[in-house]
TrEMBL record:
Name of this protein: Permease
Pfam families reported in the protein's UniProt record: AI-2E_transport
Main location (coarse class): membrane
Topology term for the membrane: Multi-pass membrane protein
One GO term describing the cellular component: membrane
Source species, domain of life: Archaea
Lineage: Archaea, Methanobacteriati, Methanobacteriota, Stenosarchaea group, Halobacteria
UniProt keywords, alphabetically: Membrane, Transmembrane, Transmembrane helix
Length: 325
């Protein structure tokens, strides 16, 4: 029987795997909206509450995300075009590098070629982009469909899982409570801190005149999911770039702003919203983020730390209930 379960489980995973991003997106949104859903049920009923939140999530989350994605794509194309046309003055940067290292670097040619290659990839793979858009449209529809059922029937699925899992109720209860605390800390706290940090850093870039601020802000929001380094990978080089262009005031101001406002917001908020509740070492979170990104794609940024942290919780629970002292 175990062989049969394993075989069908493997086949089921293979069927779901191509749309894992959208399944996990539905899980993420359903988890965040479940407290709201429970408040709506006495008024609207289970089906009505799930339908209302599915529509709200589509309008509030998915559509604005698509609009933001279009702005980011436009900024990325503009940046690629500027690099291709050598519209960004890099002579000052080249002279600083030459004075510091004694080696001449032709950044204009290098970045211009990179921009041409990037634009060529986009144009040359237009048919592939249509396929990607179609896949995304199907996936978003699937996410909305799954979100409805995750909200309406999630409680019944949890009850079924408790019934079929061959573990004592006290062990299952502790596992569920600890994993729930971990998920809330990582999915809400970690993402919220990253969004705030990226937004603050983006304001600094916009004020100091760094072009394509929307693109870099979104990039910093994603990079901020990585503890310690995070958004510094963008605003740090941007400060150096401003100094190299002969604007030390703007460059120094951006650096100080990043070290104080952005850096302190990361340390303070992350310690309150994530580290204390999740009880995960920053190295563990980074490993989960990077590994999750490779395994699960974009949604792995959120679920990677949850998976690694759940493994830690499982070991601790096993040690508590099954290891003889």
């Amino acid at each position: 029987m175990l062989v049969v379960i394993g075989a069908f489980g493997t086949l089921s995973l293979a069927i779901v795997w191509p749309f894992r991003q959208y399944v996990l997106l539905a899980v993420l949104i359903a988890y965040l909206l479940t407290p709201v859903y429970r408040r709506l049920v006495p008024v609207t009923g289970e089906t009505g509450g799930a339908l209302a939140l599915m529509g709200a999530a589509t309008g509030v989350v998915i559509l604005p995300f698509a609009a933001l994605l279009s702005v980011v794509a436009s900024d990325a194309l503009d940046l690629a075009q500027r690099l291709s046309d050598s519209d960004i003055d890099l002579e000052e940067v080249e002279s600083v590098i030459a004075a510091s290292t004694g080696r001449e670097v032709d950044l204009s040619t290098t970045l211009g070629t990179a921009g041409e290659n990037f634009a060529g990839v986009l144009v040359g793979n237009a048919s592939d982009l249509v396929g990607v858009f179609t896949h995304a449209l199907i996936g978003i529809t699937l996410s909305a469909f799954l979100l409805f059922f995750f909200l309406r029937d999630g409680r019944y699925f949890t009850e079924w899982l408790f019934e079929v899992t061959p573990l004592p109720d006290v062990v299952l209860g502790e596992l569920a409570t600890n994993v729930d605390d971990l998920m809330w800390a990582v999915l809400v706290g970690h993402v919220l801190v990253s969004a705030i940090q990226g937004l603050l850093a983006g304001i600094g870039l916009a004020v100091t005149g760094i072009p394509n601020a929307v693109f870099w802000t979104v990039a910093m929001m994603l990079l901020a999911l990585l503890p310690v380094v995070g958004a510094f990978l963008v605003w740090g080089p941007a400060a150096v770039y401003l100094v190299a262009l002969g604007d030390p005031v703007a460059g120094g101001g951006l650096f100080l702003y990043g070290m104080t406002v952005v850096g302190l917001s990361d340390n303070y908020l992350r310690s309150i919203l994530v580290d204390r509740r999740a009880q995960l070492n920053p190295a563990t979170i980074m490993l989960g983020v990077v590994g999750g990104l490779y395994l699960l794609g974009v949604m792995g940024l959120f679920f990677g730390p949850v998976i690694v942290g759940s493994f830690k919780i499982a070991i601790e629970t096993f040690d508590t209930y099954y290891v003889d002292r």
